Automatic annotation (TrEMBL), chain A:
Residues 41-137 form the HPt domain. The keyword Acetylation applies. This is Histidine-containing phosphotransfer protein. The lineage of its organism: Eukaryota, Viridiplantae, Streptophyta, Embryophyta, Tracheophyta. It is found in: Cytoplasm, Cytosol; Nucleus. GO terms for cellular component: cytoplasm; cytosol; nucleus. Keywords: Acetylation, Cytokinin signaling pathway, Cytoplasm, Nucleus, Two-component regulatory system. The keyword tRNA processing does not apply. One of its GO terms (biological process) is cytokinin-activated signaling pathway. Functions as a two-component phosphorelay mediators between cytokinin sensor histidine kinases and response regulators (B-type ARRs). Plays an important role in propagating cytokinin signal transduction. The gene is BnaC06g43070D. Coiled coil: none annotated. Its main location: cytoplasm. Histidine-containing phosphotransfer domain (HPt) contains an active histidine that mediates the phosphotransfer.
Amino acid sequence: MLGLGVDRLQADINRLLTSLFHQGVLDEQFLQLQQLQDETSPTFVYDVINIYFDESEKLLRSLRLLLMDREFSDYKKIGLHLNQLVGSSSSIGARRVRTVCVAFRSASELNNRPGCLRGLEVVEHEYHYLKNMMHELFQLEQQRLLAAGVRYPM
Amino acid sequence: MQEDSYTLITNTKKHTHALEHLLFEEKKPKMATTSTSTGDIKKTKSVEVKKKLNVLIVDDDTVIRKLHENIIKSIGGISQTAKNGEEAVNIHRDGNASFDLILMDKEMPERDGLSATKKLREMKVTSMIIGVTTLADNEEERKAFMEAGLNHCLAKPLSKAKILPLINNLMDA
């Protein structure tokens, strides 16, 4: 009975990941992250993704504050924030977030404020979609581990 | 039938394990050799001791530092991190730092990778320095970074497969 539960959960995880790859939400770099997870770092993917969420939300908040300021003109700062977002997104395999950040950065290089505002909306949308999908993935993984009777120190 | 992600992981793992086997394992013990300063392998007839690769990871991004730390750990190395080029230079100021490898990000606040690399070479730091660039960096920027004193340049995102051949060369040298 337990075995069937684990198998079904594993199948759900595989289906979700396959879907995320097909949608282009994730790319091969996410597989590289999973490869780095082992018995010495059993929660590596969870840890690094959560660091990514914390850091990305700080950057997105800062971007929004900058752009909401009517006197705003510091496109260089926008570019620096976006460079960081592009780098960290590509490092975890968040392909769509990375792509829309690159488009946003192009608008900032042209000092195009309406383009930047639109870019920010798109980035926020893609980011939140990714975050929701990752939470779903982690929940499934947690259920799978519980079903398999595995305990990791958290 | 489309390969699911876990099949992909398994196949990639096999390839990476093969690379690691090449890098870190010797099937036949060899005669004793003289040791050199870094990255050496001391060998006797019956026992092999491998020195752990000691790496400095220089990047202002927390996610990337964590990723690179784990990559180095996964290949049996140890690492220290610095948040920018200025920290990296400060680590070397007392002359006692001894890294086999420095992974140097290009764009960082306070002191960028290019400036840090130049400074470290002026300080006679002989570690292998691998510059880590982004796809946004053009050929001219990469060239300038190399000329600052890098041994190699790699584009983000880094992975075990990208870094292992370079480390292999370092260990052979």
